[in-house]
Design brief:
Elements lengths: L2 H5 L4 H22 L9 H10 L1 E3 H8 L3 H13 L3 E5 L7 E5 L1 H27 L4 H14 L2 H7 L7 E5 L5 H15 L4 H8 L1 H4 L6 E7 L2 E10 L4 E9 L8 H15 L4 E6 L4 H10 L2 E3 L12 E6 L1
Parallel strand pairs: 7-8
Antiparallel strand pairs: 1-3, 2-3, 4-5, 5-6, 6-7, 8-10, 9-10
Length: 313
């Protein structure tokens, strides 16, 4: 029995991944047969640069719909192969530009006939078998661009978990403090910087363009998380706390996903956080959400923090 086929839509993501892996494997074999040293996963980025000439990492990420860390990883692989170079934009030192090398352009000349053959063959397969996969895939991508799969799940009544995410309201204000005091006191000491935010979250966060979310199990508040506005379009993910008795409900993950969705919604370009390496489950959660470690700010205001992570959109 093909278990994934039997599971139907429950395993849609796994089946798409399986099909993608199959096509990628065949693609790698095709390039090898034509004696072309090229990894199929590089294709979208290389083709983007072939079309645009050069682009910064944010533009590439937005155009392809890939995460910032994923784009950086591919760029590093291409740099190692001598196919791209990256450099600081002279007009804006904050941006890093990427462009193809002469070696890449020479390789593209060899690959273009192969690309045409791949395109023609795939189109023939879809047409002969009356498959409208590309059209349906475009529809699905548009649907999830409008409302993410995560938010659709959260809006659907659950039989095993009633955890839902709510925005800040004055009625929930006290929970922001109590949940954080419970969490911080368990592992560290509450610092002056904590109290400044916890005692008056509206002044410290909301009124400055930030946001606070809460996780509720039924009518019980079990977790909270804040998005604090920094300079420009930079925000800090802070004060994530989940009560101990709610362990196993994945409230922290749901809060993290929701707060990043909110960040994208309001146009954030980067979200960072500071934490402590001893909090292994928390650090693993941040990595799962897409955060990557960056150099620690020596002027960090929290004594307990020894790791900084960020994610760019």
């Amino acid at each position: 029995m093909n278990i994934l086929s039997h599971l139907g839509s429950l395993a849609l993501g796994s089946r798409l991944r399986r099909m993608s892996d199959r096509i990628m494997r065949d693609g790698a074999l095709i390039y090898k047969t034509y004696n072309i040293p090229f990894n199929p996963k590089w294709f979208p980025l290389v083709f983007h640069l072939k079309t645009m000439g050069e682009a910064n990492i944010k533009e590439i990420s937005s155009s392809l719909g890939f995460s910032h860390p994923a784009i950086i990883l591919i760029i590093k692989e291409l740099e190692k192969e001598g196919l791209v170079i990256s450099y600081v934009d002279e007009k804006d030192k904050r941006k890093r530009m990427v462009k193809l090398t002469d070696k890449a352009h020479q390789l593209i000349v060899k690959m273009e006939p192969v690309w045409q053959k791949i395109k023609a063959t795939m189109s023939q397969v879809l047409k002969e078998n009356d498959i409208e996969l590309l059209k349906d895939l475009q529809k699905l991508e548009t649907v999830f661009d409008q409302t993410s799969f995560y938010h659709r799940i959260m809006k659907t009544p659950q039989t095993t978990s009633q955890v839902e995410i709510r925005a800040y309201s004055s009625e929930l204000k006290s929970y922001f403090r109590t949940l954080n005091e419970e969490w911080i006191s368990k592992y560290f000491e509450i610092e002056p910087s904590d109290l400044k935010v916890l005692l008056d979250p509206e002044t410290a966060i909301i009124n400055k363009g930030g946001h606070i979310l809460f996780a509720l199990d039924g009518e019980e508040v079990i977790g909270t998380c804040a998005l604090i506005k920094n300079q420009g379009n930079s925000y800090e993910l802070a004060k994530m706390a989940v009560t101990e008795k709610a362990r196993g409900k994945k409230a922290g993950e749901k809060l993290g996903v929701a707060i990043l969705e909110k960040a994208k919604e309001i146009g954030a370009e980067m979200v960072y956080l500071v934490s402590n390496r001893t909090l292994i489950p928390a650090v693993k959660l941040y990595e799962k959400l897409g955060f990557v470690e960056v150099p620690m700010d020596p002027n960090n205001e929290y004594k307990r923090s020894d790791i900084k992570m960020e994610i760019k959109f």
